[in-house]
Amino acid sequence: MASLYVSEIEAATKGFGILLIFVFILYKFLINKKPSRPDNQLKLPPGPRPWPLVGNLHQLGHLPHQSLAELAKKYGNIVFLRLGSVPTVVISSPAMAKEFLKTHDSVFASRPPVSAAKYLFYDHRDVTFARYGEYWKQMRKLCTMELFTVKRTESFKSVREEEVITMVRSIWQQSEEGIHSVDLRGSLSLLTQNIVCRMFSGRTFSDDELNGGVGFKDMLSEMAAVAGAFVIGDYIRFLEWFDLEGIRRRMRVVQKIFDGFAEKVIDEHINRRREKSEDENRVKDMVDVLLDRAESESQSMEVKISRVHIKAIILDILIAGVETSSTTIEWAMSELLKNPHVLEKAQQEIESLVGRDRFLVEKDVTSCEYLRCIVRETFRLHPPVPLLLPHESMEVCFVDGYYIPPKTMLLVNVWAMGRDENVWADPLQFNPERFMGKTTDVKGQDFELIPFGTGRRGCPGISMGLSIVELALAELIHCFDWSVECELNMDEFFGITVPKKFPLFSRPSWRMSKKYDSIFDIKKSG
Ligand code: HEM
């Protein structure tokens, strides 16, 4: 019995051994040899281990672009994270930007479904937050072919020149009145707000024109604040309905105020058309262009332009155009105050071109090479949208040997790219000379400097943005010398854009040959 038992065990052991060998052979020669994909194809990019539920959200901190730059130092230029339940890839090098925004651009051309898109931007019916598809293509085409063309940008040249001079006058008046330090952030916000409003509606708006007792400026700040706010429910989906931060409620409130405002703008345009009270010489604004399109019987677009589309586009233009430009000019002025030799050199360049007897016009600025290098250097160190806007992948993609699942959010850390010592010599130094005689520009051909993004989702307002920034900066340093009394604080604040944490106050002193009024009269008669 015992020996039988032993032999059964022996037989069983033998059988198990044979089975193991069989499984090994099967694995080695059939299963292991068969796969159609190399081993690394399902390998995710490296990254820190996520925590249950929150994933890597806790690692973002108050300044996510800076925290993500630190993670890139540890894990490399492609990092995989889970933000709550959202798979996320963060890239931080020109080579990676080329892979994602050129080679695989069509896969990553969508936007993730965030609360702002739904509750503020007319449920994705704008351009910026629209998901990739026929609708976005049509709306984007409308922007690039009609609203933001070079010709249209050129048609608003006098708007920009007039508004910049108005800002100069206001600063001059303040200095004449003995105001010690001018609130440059306030002046620049008003400037870009007025330019953008005149571009889309032909006029500016005062604080008492909105319903609900909210000022126009306050409405803009609130819209920017909620559009840029972090909403936990966008990442931990089951929390979506609790509106823990109260942001969704704020979005609804400010959306209603904006909607009333946009309705009024459209009505004004329609009434003017009905009454045929148009001044024939008036430059067409963007709402005119959109109404022309809506009224034209032969709309070649599948999307018929309605009021909602016009309102959504106005909202895009306000959010995308106002803060981006003013934030950039504020950073540029701050760097010039910290680097007086750069300010002096730029002033000399402008002066040798136009003297001190007249204001600048846009044509002058195209000849100011050094000034334009200052703008590029500002975009390198202080891109106003440091992670671009989040993209989302639409299908499985393999990049650099890594597996990127569908519906992965893509963040492009242009802030980290601008400070990468493998790309830039002395990256933390503000040194506009690095761009002199170089072809590197902000349109992203070589992917080193992409503050406007690039590819399908790149900024369509790039020429408008650049012309505002260049002219305003040039005129500010042409007309005034600037000084600050104490060391400038260059800390950042993260929102829909990343401005300085503390607004810039600075002391202007008039450096033109004549008083403001005399120069203004010369300009008018000229
Ligand atoms: C200094 C000025 C500006 C900067 C730095 C800037 C930057 C950007 C960036 C980073 C994006 C996202 C790109 C991406 O996700 O890959 C963007 C998108 C966009 N920008 Fe700008 N922008 C500026 C001015 C403007 C202006 C003046 C307008 C319009 C009047 C404008 C309209 C838009 C629109 C409509 C989009 C969405 C494009 C899409 O999703 O298809 N931007 N911009």
From TrEMBL:
Pfam families: p450
Membrane-crossing residue ranges in chain numbering: 12-31
Cofactor: heme
Subcellular locations according to the entry: Membrane
UniProt keyword list: Heme, Iron, Membrane, Metal-binding, Monooxygenase, Oxidoreductase, Taxol biosynthesis, Transmembrane, Transmembrane helix
Main location: membrane
Coiled-coil regions listed: none
SUPFAM superfamilies linked: Cytochrome P450
GO annotation, biological process: paclitaxel biosynthetic process
A GO molecular-function descriptor: oxidoreductase activity, acting on paired donors, with incorporation or reduction of molecular oxygen
GO cellular component assignments: membrane
Lineage: superkingdom: Eukaryota
Pathway in which this enzyme or protein is active: Alkaloid biosynthesis; taxol biosynthesis
Binding-site residues, heme: C459
InterPro entries: Cyt_P450, Cyt_P450_CS, Cyt_P450_E_grp-I, Cyt_P450_sf
Family, similarity comment: Belongs to the cytochrome P450 family.
Protein name: CYP750C19
Organism: Taxus chinensis
